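Troubleshooting entry. The earlier prediction with guanosine-5',3'-tetraphosphate gave an output that would not parse, so I re-checked the input for stray whitespace and re-submitted. Clean input:
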Amino acid sequence: MVNFSQDFILNIDLSTFAGIFYSANNMSLKEEIAKRRTFGIISHPDAGKTTLTEKLLLFGGAIQTAGAVKSNKIKQSTTSDFMEIEKQRGISVATSVMGFEYNGLKINLLDTPGHQDFAEDTYRTLTAVDSVVMVIDCVKGVEIQTEKLMEVCRMRATPVISFINKLDREGRDPFELLDEIEEKLNIQVRPLSWPISMGKTFKGVYSLFNKTLLLFKGSQSKISKEDLIKIADINDPEIDRLVGESYAKQLREDVELIEGVYPEFDDEAYLRGEVAPVFFGSAVNNFGVQELLDCFIHIAPIPRKRSTEEREVLPEEDKFSGFVFKIHANIDPKHRNRIAFLRVCSGKFERAKNYYHVRLNKNFRFSNATAFMAQSKETIEEAFPGDIVGLYDTGNLKIGDTLTEGEKGIFKGIPSFSPEIFREVVNLDAMKSKQLDKGLKQLMEEGVAQLFTYELGSRKVVGTVGQLQFEVIQHRLKHEYGASCEFHAMNLYKACWIASKDKKQLDEFVKSKYRHIAKDKDDKLVFMAESKAWLGMVQDNFPEIEFHFTSEF
Ligand code: G4P
């Protein structure tokens, strides 16, 4: 019998509004959704993302030994060491999504490439998570990549938890770090734990969340129960005995200041992306990780609603929907098949069922679907909102594609950003131009870089975030497609997606600037601006035209 709980009644209201129907099975779907927490870990390279990921898996019971998660990064920035790049590709498939069960919850941890040249990949991965853990190095503070990533989180109001790492090192003053986060990342903070000294004299962390003291004893594989001391009152002389009088005094002063300066932690404000709770620890020493995980499962959001061009899609809707946020070419270059990473947004995904591919207006069956567990991939029969499914694909899927049970809306929120570096593609082997075109098309579908094709003369321009992609593209075109090309430098400042409410004005603009107009992968019009000053002038001269640095606006 259906239990007409308040939730169910609420659903009926919403469904009436959105024209959606829920079945009696909906309660079990809701239970599955309530179990899921899908999040990403982000940081500036070297802050400790890989280490924290591994330690979370260790504490979550998903792996048994440290060292199981390989570093997902390329050490040198412009290396020609292609083996390293190939390795990177292989590794990132294995460690891109790590699912594990913890305390009855299904946690999906999405890894993001550490290397800044792969920032676009990271941005896209962030569209598939419901929250984020941001690692900050206590010595270096907020770094440039962290600022950029925070911008992306802000675009979607993604809730952020901050983990200040490497407390075993002489770092910056914790209050100063909090101020820096507020200032540079433009988000309010609320410490939920507090360090007692740092570096050589690091004593431990006091949890403001559950009023416990965790003592630091150097490198430990597991933190035992004896290290966690319940302190009912911050004035308890036991603290003096454990950490020494002067550190105890400092802690009391700090806690008083925190309680005075920062408002009570407000989890609703965290869920709205307005306040970031902050934890302190030392990931390499397993310190502060358990506290982070335990608080995370308490406060992190369950799978959230997503928007398509037409409407908001709620996870608990009966009908399946999902979108592709990442494509990975198979490691074996002899086989052209790829894995598409699909985030389930609503309903239940079932293997081998027919789903509607909105962009191609065609049905597809995916008989080979995998889930990603901490150290393996396994075939699955079903998946629920929040889950990431790996679909084997021979070229029908690309980033941003939506699959549904027949509905036509495409999920929004996977924009392309204007690249930073632009190069013209010059074919070096006229006999292989077909291979070059095909290779470029497929690599762009994987999201390695962006291709812009000029209206005039069909010149092809590749845009990237960093230098490294050009080497990757050249190498892969040669080895996987047998095509050779060179990249010639171009003097471009930004790619601006253009639009106007007035179609006539837009046509006129395109006509008058036809030498600078290109189309992106989706045939959207792009104005290729050569300099900031020139763009400013053009904007002044054409006030009816909108210029956007992202493809979605
Ligand atoms: P990333 O993924 O964010 O790029 O960082 P990663 O975890 O690879 O960590 C970068 C370096 O910082 C590593 O040292 C790692 O051991 C170290 N590290 C991580 N957490 C802590 C910490 O809590 N305290 C201290 N002192 N160091 C930490 P490495 O020398 O680059 O590599 P490795 O040889 O130690 O693996």
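This one parsed fine. Residues 421-548 form a domain with the Alpha-Beta Plaits fold (CATH 3.30.70.3280).
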